[in-house]
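Thread: "does anyone have the structure for this chain?"

Original post by V.I.:
We have the sequence but no experimental structure in hand. Need at least a predicted one for the grant figures.
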Amino acid sequence: MSYKRLFVSAFFLLLTRFAYSQQASPPDSITMAINTKFDKAGKVTRLLLGTNYRKVWAQEIRMPVFHLDKEKGGLKITGTGGGNQTTSLQLEDSSGREWVLRSANKTTSRDQPKIYKNTLVEAIMLDAGSIGHPFSALAVPPMAQALGITHTNPKIVYLGDDPQLGKYRDEFANHVYLFEEHGPADGGKDYKTEKVQDKLEEDNDKKTDQKLILRARILDMIMGDWDRHGGQWKWTKGEDSTKNTYEPTPGDRDKVFYTTGGAIFTVMALAKPNLQPYTDHIRRVDMWNYNTVGFDLYFLNQPNEKDWEDEIAYVQKTLTDSLVTRAVKLMPANVYAVSGPHILKTFFKRRDHIKKFAMQYYRFLAQKVDVPASDKDEHFTINTQKDGDVKVTINKVKKDNTTGKVIYQRTFKKEVTNDVRLYGLSGKNSFEVTGSNQTPIKVRMIGGTDTDTYHIDTALNNRKNLYVYDVRGPGNSLPTSSEAHLKLSNDTAINAYKRPENKYTTYTPIVGVGYSTEDGLQLVGGVGLTQYSFRKEPYRNTQQLKVNYTLSKKSFIVTYSGIFKSVWGKTDLLVNITERGPRNTNNFFGLGNVGEYQNEKEFYYYRNRYDYGVADIRLAHKFDKWQVSGGLITEFYIASRGSNFDHFFSQYDQEHPEERLFDTKLYEGVIGGAVYDSRNNQTFPSKGVTWRTTVTGLTGLNVGGHSSASFLSTFSFFVPIKDSTIVLANRTGVGHIVGKGEFFQMMNLGGLTLQGFHTSRFIGNTVLYNNLELRAKLFNFNAYVLASSFGLVAFNDAGRVWLKGEHSSTIHDTYGGGIFLTPYNAFLLQAVLGKSADGYLSYITVGFRF
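Reply from O.Q.:
Generated one for you, tokens below.
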């Protein structure tokens, strides 16, 4: 009996231990959705931010559970990392090979300003994760393999609360990841893009396969992967005997099949084409590739038009319908069901049309081409062909000074390319220009830090498009100034090479509003333009056109400003144009320090209609914190009796007919200026000074005897009182005019120079005023829809004008205060109320007045 009981007890004990072991054993797989929040978005969110891939993120899929101690024989954590919106866990197996777990879910950008935290802006950025396809990377390997492009082999896994995570448990446990290789299969070394560039520039034996890189980039464009900057590539040494070739491995495929929708992204895509949805069409392919242009300009500077066409044809032929379908079907079945057919339809059309878009991009890249050599010795041959094309060949130079193998060769077509820049870098370099035909292509030869030799065929006669940049001195053998433009300097910076950047011609919309008691609501719209070119820093030119429309006046103010860098040596060109009209309305209360203003009369009476324009063009030179400028100026003025019959203009014209207010008047003259600016911040300066002075001389073209000279100078300083959050700001202005000046040329006081009084309230020959402000940034707040700092401003203004023949001792004094906000630290918005003898006036402006 005792044996029987012992047997039964042992049986139940074994059964219990078996059951417990089965229960405690971690599961091998799990079924879950990556992110269900996206698909819970309401109608308004979908209308504004798009439908995107919300249903894909919400699909429940079965995925393996990742065990650190079992996968690949056991993995150890070597560190953490991540992209701009992802986190990653870096791993290593027992053989030393590297692996990585990348989060499938997106986080807010690592570069996101702290002020966005827990705000509507952050919520929008998080929801924007729905525009990416979480399983897109699974479809890439078969296509890359078929094209001979090195690739990783990602798979979707779930990492539970694995004890092996140790100190990383809180951050990385219980999330979905992409698991893939992070280094070469043999455990060897891989290189970052910048390191490869360093190697290429150090030694002309090192090289890359630019046709293979081009093939990879064509695949990127077909798949919609627009974020291919240098940080998205790894490089390994090739299998050739010298191992001098670096082979690329594209990574971080989170933008593949990227799509967008909704009103917000539709509008944003107009300015940033890379935000356009994944369709069969690529609008503005140059801007769509914005993140990658710097990479492409460097690593695709050798393939010519035929090379591009050949690679496009190869990619189109290789990526067959059946291959791509198999690749896309590597996604989970239910994910394929809700997104696969649309992706395939778009992919096939994009593949079939890719020649159109890729060749547009080729022509964009081919306009301006940088060709860096290396720190070794090289010989450059620039041959101008009969048809005007330019063939560039770079040879190694052997130790016996004879030319060795060709390391670069390309023929640049005059219909496509307008600028070729050849950099010698270091080493002894020789540049030989041959041919007998002129070419419209600019060829810039930039010597190296060692001795350089230049030889230009005297029969070429193409000086206007040949440029030589090098150091003065006996070491270099330079051509004559009749053979090429010589850009010489004592500074070795003349030889500097700067890797290509994504500097495009950019257009920036300008939208704004303003408000004041006297003008009411003002609407501002316009566009800014910035262009870049060779060695014009920080840009070639920046231009801005703005239109200000005042609703109460029904009048326009149109302004244009342009800065053109280094038009003459290091001297810039400045252009400023202001046109007040048509239907311009401006205040005029007469002349003097008293000025007529009868409160019983409506303010409308003093709002007079006249059109006024002023334009100046200057040369400007910067000296550290100084800028000095000088040039020409012209003005015009026109007013009519009919538009002013019930305004103060008519009364003033009857009292002062000699002023001839209703004549058309033209003036021209000279203008000069000087600016000193040492402020530590343009938006909220807490220390530093600014000093601005303008001197003008004008002569009437159709107004006999009317000539004048004037100056206006303002000096501002800023003093921090408490941790730069409380600032004392002061501005003093003084001006004077001599000769016979019109009322619109004389010194005026009011508006932003004397808050509380109307603009142009006082006009005279001389002006003196002071603006004192106390600005206090009190606290930051987060109201979800708005995150901002909040501050108070108090001011006291005082000033007066002097007019010949007038006797007045009045100093006009105003005071007031208000608040300011800095929404998301993007700009400063100020609202103040000013009190003067005339009453109260309010102002809402963007930025402080000084």
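V.I.: this helps a lot. Confidence is low (pLDDT under 50) at residues 12-23.
O.Q.: and The chain has three domains: 29-366, 368-488, 506-846.
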